[in-house]
Amino acid sequence: MSIQVSLNGLSFCALDTGSRRIVFFRDQRFPKKLNPIQTLQQIEKIYSEEDFLEREFGEVKVLFSNELYSLIPESLFQEENATDYLKFNARILETDFVALDALQEDDLVNVYIPFTNINNYFFDKYGEFEYQHCTSVLVKEFLKMNRDQRSGTRVYLNRNASGYDLIIIQKNKLLFSNTFMCDTKEDFIYYLLFTAEQLELDPEEFELILLGNITENSDYYSIAYTYIRHISFLKTSFGYIFDDKVRVPEGYKFFTLFTSLS
To answer: Distance between CA atoms of 170 and 46, rounded to whole angstroms?
Structure first.
């Protein structure tokens, strides 16, 4: 079972590992951004509606999607200073729990704030489970995809309901990773072009690869197409079979959720 949690929505997906069959899928979007307490209330509501989620699962993974994270080179990381890395990027409270994802193969550590009340709920449901930040999944997978890249720059944009994650890979190295909050197409393109300008990337040359909550007929795609020459959607191939009762979602829209099942 893979569960993705954000303050804008929830996604649940269950895989029968023997048959590689997706046997349960549910995506729930909220009309507005909630706080962690309200999000937990929505989770409890979904569990009251879905008997399937009360089953025992061999493995449960929870992914947190928020802007409360910071990627640190492993050579510079000191665990006793973990909270300090976040203070530059986010407002954190003394009571916040700081978690770490070690991306050892890529010599990176992702320091982030999970939603502790939601973690506690899932622990009561399932006992021990694994949790990660969505950005850890994205960075790991994009670096893997570009392991043999020797030239060019690929800009991956993972859009969600309140903004997007922007991850840039250049010559098989992580050049940039950040999350921008925006709710207009003008802000959407501003952050993208400003980042490109700061990194001296030419919109005529780099590849923009889209995933998440975006389609070719959206205003966000249209404005990006106006300013950026090379745009495509992330190509995915998970090899899953979908149960007859499960609607088949587009892979690029739920990349982190499906990737975490493998």
So the answer is: 41
- Return the structure tokens found at 237: 């191939």
Closest CA to 157 of 91, 247, 224: 224
Q: What is the pTM of this model?
A: 0.94
- Secondary structure of residue 220 in the 3-state scheme: helix
How deeply is 94 buried, as exposed, middle or buried, from its count of CB atoms within 10 A (0-12, 13-18, 19+)?
Answer: exposed
Domains of the chain by start residue, with CATH: 2-139+237-259 (3.30.420.250), 148-233 (3.30.420.260)
What is the distance of C-alpha 256 from the center of its chain? 6
Burial 47-80, CB ≥16 within 10 A → b, else e:
eeeeeebeeeeeebbbbbbbbbbbbbeeeebeee
Residue 226's H or E segment, with its range, is helix 219-227
User: How do residues 41-78 score in pLDDT, each as one tens digit?
Assistant: 999 999 999 999 999 999 999 999 999 999 999 999 99
SS3 5: strand
Q: How far apart are CA 228 and CA 153, in angstroms?
A: 13
End-to-end Cα spacing for the chain: 10
- Average pLDDT estimate for 203-227: 96
Whether residue 174 contacts residue 139, with contact meaning beta carbons closer than 8 Å, is answered with yes
Structure tokens at 153: 């720059």
Sign of CA dihedral 256, 29, 239, 154: negative
Which DSSP letter does residue 256 get? H
CA distance 29 to 233: 22
Nearest CA-CA partner of 8 in 98, 115, 93, 131? 115
Q: Report the SS3 class of residue 131.
A: strand
